Amino acid sequence: MITAELTIIPIGTDSTSLSEYVAAAVSALDKIGIQYQLSGMGTQIEANNPPELFAAIQVAHEAVFAKGADRVSTSIKIDDRRDADRTLQDKVSSVKNKI
Hints:
This protein has helices spanning 19-32, 50-66, 88-98, and strands at 2-11, 35-38, 43-47, 71-80. The protein has a 4-stranded antiparallel beta sheet, covered by helices on one side. The longest helix has 17 residues, at 50-66. It is α+β, with helices and mostly antiparallel strands.
């Protein structure tokens, strides 16, 4: 299982609010059926393999352009763990169990 945190920022928009662009990116993820968790600072996604992960990132990135952005900055943090199959929720639960 590969998990990633994705932050997509449109540049040069008419407003400081970005929620409509985030909604476009998340809607694109919904359409391809990938698992994700939305947070206040980014979106975490789960994929079975690198091609699936990068396809999801591309779909979300392109959705922001389709919404009208002329420039988009995308930051990605990837955790590709191959010794165990762990979901985003597994990682959170592991920490909570140690608190």
